[in-house]
Design brief:
By secondary structure, the protein is mainly beta. Helices cover about 0% and strands about 50% of the residues. The chain has strands at about 10, 15, 15-25, 35, 35-40, 40-45, 45-55, 60, 65, 70, 75-85, 90, 95, 100, 105-110, 115, 120, 125, 130-135, 140, 145, 150-155, 165-170, 170. It has a seven-stranded parallel β-sheet with strand order 2-6-10-14-18-21-23, with no helix packed on it. Strands 3-7-11-15-19-22-24 form a seven-stranded parallel β-sheet, with no helix packed on it. Strands 1-5-9-13-17-20 form a six-stranded parallel β-sheet, with no helix packed on it. It is globular, with a radius of gyration of 14 Å.
Protein backbone atom coordinates (compact mmCIF):
# COMPACT_ATOMS: atom_id res chain seq x y z
CA UNK A 1 0.00 0.00 0.00
CA UNK A 2 1.29 3.43 -0.85
CA UNK A 3 0.38 6.36 1.36
CA UNK A 4 1.10 10.03 1.01
CA UNK A 5 0.37 12.38 -1.84
CA UNK A 6 1.49 12.98 -5.36
CA UNK A 7 3.47 9.95 -6.50
CA UNK A 8 3.46 8.40 -9.99
CA UNK A 9 3.35 4.69 -10.87
CA UNK A 10 4.09 4.42 -14.59
CA UNK A 11 5.47 2.04 -17.20
CA UNK A 12 5.53 -1.13 -15.10
CA UNK A 13 4.81 -4.67 -16.22
CA UNK A 14 3.45 -6.77 -13.35
CA UNK A 15 2.41 -10.38 -14.00
CA UNK A 16 1.36 -11.57 -10.54
CA UNK A 17 0.63 -10.40 -7.03
CA UNK A 18 -2.24 -10.28 -4.57
CA UNK A 19 -2.79 -6.57 -5.24
CA UNK A 20 -0.64 -5.49 -8.16
CA UNK A 21 -0.99 -1.75 -7.39
CA UNK A 22 -2.64 -0.57 -4.16
CA UNK A 23 -2.96 3.03 -3.00
CA UNK A 24 -4.96 4.61 -0.24
CA UNK A 25 -5.05 4.93 3.51
CA UNK A 26 -4.18 2.88 6.53
CA UNK A 27 -6.73 2.59 9.31
CA UNK A 28 -7.66 5.90 10.90
CA UNK A 29 -4.93 7.91 9.16
CA UNK A 30 -6.19 11.49 9.61
CA UNK A 31 -4.01 12.96 6.83
CA UNK A 32 -5.80 13.23 3.45
CA UNK A 33 -4.20 11.04 0.80
CA UNK A 34 -4.24 11.24 -2.96
CA UNK A 35 -3.13 13.08 -6.05
CA UNK A 36 -1.49 9.85 -7.27
CA UNK A 37 -1.10 9.01 -10.96
CA UNK A 38 -1.18 5.39 -12.13
CA UNK A 39 -0.56 5.36 -15.89
CA UNK A 40 0.69 3.16 -18.73
CA UNK A 41 1.17 -0.03 -16.70
CA UNK A 42 0.58 -3.56 -18.01
CA UNK A 43 -0.92 -5.82 -15.33
CA UNK A 44 -1.88 -9.49 -15.57
CA UNK A 45 -2.61 -12.34 -13.16
CA UNK A 46 -3.32 -10.16 -10.12
CA UNK A 47 -4.75 -12.24 -7.27
CA UNK A 48 -7.32 -9.82 -5.83
CA UNK A 49 -7.41 -6.54 -7.77
CA UNK A 50 -5.02 -5.21 -10.37
CA UNK A 51 -5.36 -1.54 -9.32
CA UNK A 52 -7.02 -0.68 -6.01
CA UNK A 53 -7.70 2.68 -4.41
CA UNK A 54 -8.93 2.23 -0.81
CA UNK A 55 -10.28 4.69 1.72
CA UNK A 56 -10.40 3.02 5.13
CA UNK A 57 -12.89 4.20 7.82
CA UNK A 58 -12.26 7.76 8.93
CA UNK A 59 -9.91 8.60 6.03
CA UNK A 60 -9.96 10.84 2.94
CA UNK A 61 -8.59 9.74 -0.47
CA UNK A 62 -9.05 12.13 -3.40
CA UNK A 63 -7.82 13.20 -6.84
CA UNK A 64 -6.18 9.99 -8.05
CA UNK A 65 -5.80 9.35 -11.78
CA UNK A 66 -5.79 5.83 -13.26
CA UNK A 67 -5.24 6.06 -17.03
CA UNK A 68 -3.94 4.21 -20.09
CA UNK A 69 -3.31 0.91 -18.27
CA UNK A 70 -3.74 -2.54 -19.82
CA UNK A 71 -5.20 -5.11 -17.42
CA UNK A 72 -5.93 -8.80 -18.07
CA UNK A 73 -6.77 -11.91 -16.05
CA UNK A 74 -7.40 -10.36 -12.65
CA UNK A 75 -9.21 -12.47 -10.05
CA UNK A 76 -11.19 -9.71 -8.32
CA UNK A 77 -11.92 -6.35 -9.88
CA UNK A 78 -9.39 -5.18 -12.41
CA UNK A 79 -9.73 -1.55 -11.26
CA UNK A 80 -11.41 -1.00 -7.90
CA UNK A 81 -12.38 2.10 -5.90
CA UNK A 82 -13.43 1.01 -2.39
CA UNK A 83 -14.71 3.40 0.26
CA UNK A 84 -15.44 2.05 3.72
CA UNK A 85 -18.03 3.53 6.07
CA UNK A 86 -17.00 6.92 7.41
CA UNK A 87 -14.45 7.51 4.64
CA UNK A 88 -14.31 9.89 1.69
CA UNK A 89 -13.25 8.61 -1.74
CA UNK A 90 -14.01 11.31 -4.28
CA UNK A 91 -12.76 13.21 -7.35
CA UNK A 92 -10.87 10.23 -8.78
CA UNK A 93 -10.58 9.49 -12.50
CA UNK A 94 -10.45 6.13 -14.28
CA UNK A 95 -9.75 6.92 -17.94
CA UNK A 96 -8.78 5.16 -21.17
CA UNK A 97 -7.87 1.79 -19.65
CA UNK A 98 -8.10 -1.49 -21.57
CA UNK A 99 -9.48 -4.36 -19.47
CA UNK A 100 -10.20 -7.95 -20.46
CA UNK A 101 -10.58 -11.43 -18.97
CA UNK A 102 -11.59 -10.48 -15.42
CA UNK A 103 -12.06 -13.90 -13.86
CA UNK A 104 -14.28 -13.10 -10.86
CA UNK A 105 -16.01 -9.79 -10.05
CA UNK A 106 -15.81 -6.77 -12.35
CA UNK A 107 -13.66 -5.02 -14.88
CA UNK A 108 -14.19 -1.69 -13.09
CA UNK A 109 -15.91 -1.40 -9.68
CA UNK A 110 -16.83 1.78 -7.83
CA UNK A 111 -18.12 0.86 -4.36
CA UNK A 112 -20.81 2.41 -2.23
CA UNK A 113 -19.59 5.64 -0.59
CA UNK A 114 -17.22 6.29 -3.53
CA UNK A 115 -18.99 9.39 -4.84
CA UNK A 116 -18.32 12.11 -7.44
CA UNK A 117 -15.74 10.11 -9.43
CA UNK A 118 -15.28 9.83 -13.21
CA UNK A 119 -15.06 6.62 -15.29
CA UNK A 120 -14.28 7.76 -18.84
CA UNK A 121 -13.38 6.19 -22.20
CA UNK A 122 -12.43 2.72 -20.92
CA UNK A 123 -12.79 -0.58 -22.77
CA UNK A 124 -13.99 -3.54 -20.70
CA UNK A 125 -14.46 -6.96 -22.30
CA UNK A 126 -14.95 -10.54 -21.10
CA UNK A 127 -15.41 -9.97 -17.38
CA UNK A 128 -16.74 -13.08 -15.64
CA UNK A 129 -19.51 -11.02 -14.02
CA UNK A 130 -19.80 -7.26 -14.63
CA UNK A 131 -18.03 -4.92 -17.02
CA UNK A 132 -18.50 -1.68 -15.04
CA UNK A 133 -20.42 -1.71 -11.76
CA UNK A 134 -21.05 1.46 -9.75
CA UNK A 135 -22.60 1.51 -6.26
CA UNK A 136 -21.50 5.02 -5.30
CA UNK A 137 -23.51 8.17 -6.01
CA UNK A 138 -23.18 11.15 -8.37
CA UNK A 139 -20.47 9.53 -10.50
CA UNK A 140 -19.96 10.23 -14.21
CA UNK A 141 -19.54 7.11 -16.35
CA UNK A 142 -19.14 8.24 -19.97
CA UNK A 143 -17.74 7.15 -23.31
CA UNK A 144 -16.90 3.60 -22.21
CA UNK A 145 -17.14 0.46 -24.34
CA UNK A 146 -18.28 -2.49 -22.23
CA UNK A 147 -19.32 -5.55 -24.19
CA UNK A 148 -19.15 -9.32 -23.88
CA UNK A 149 -19.24 -9.36 -20.07
CA UNK A 150 -21.09 -12.32 -18.55
CA UNK A 151 -23.88 -10.83 -16.37
CA UNK A 152 -24.13 -7.12 -17.26
CA UNK A 153 -21.87 -4.83 -19.21
CA UNK A 154 -23.00 -1.85 -17.09
CA UNK A 155 -24.57 -1.96 -13.62
CA UNK A 156 -25.80 1.01 -11.55
CA UNK A 157 -26.50 0.33 -7.87
CA UNK A 158 -26.13 3.96 -6.73
CA UNK A 159 -28.10 7.17 -7.13
CA UNK A 160 -27.75 10.17 -9.44
CA UNK A 161 -25.01 8.59 -11.55
CA UNK A 162 -24.72 9.88 -15.13
CA UNK A 163 -24.13 7.36 -17.98
CA UNK A 164 -23.87 9.28 -21.30
CA UNK A 165 -22.42 7.92 -24.54
CA UNK A 166 -21.44 4.40 -23.44
CA UNK A 167 -21.45 1.45 -25.87
CA UNK A 168 -22.79 -1.77 -24.30
CA UNK A 169 -25.01 -4.78 -24.90
CA UNK A 170 -26.60 -5.28 -21.46
CA UNK A 171 -27.28 -2.95 -18.55
CA UNK A 172 -28.91 -3.09 -15.11
CA UNK A 173 -30.30 0.27 -14.04
Amino acid sequence: IANGTGFVVSGNTITSGTYCILVGTLLQNPIPQGHHTIVKNTLSGCGVNAISVYADPGTVVTHNRIADNTVTKCTGSCIDLTAYEGSTLTNNEIKANSISDSMALAGIRVSARADDNRVLDNEVHEAARFGITVAGNSNLIAGNVAQGNTIFDLQDLGQDNKWPNNTYDTANW
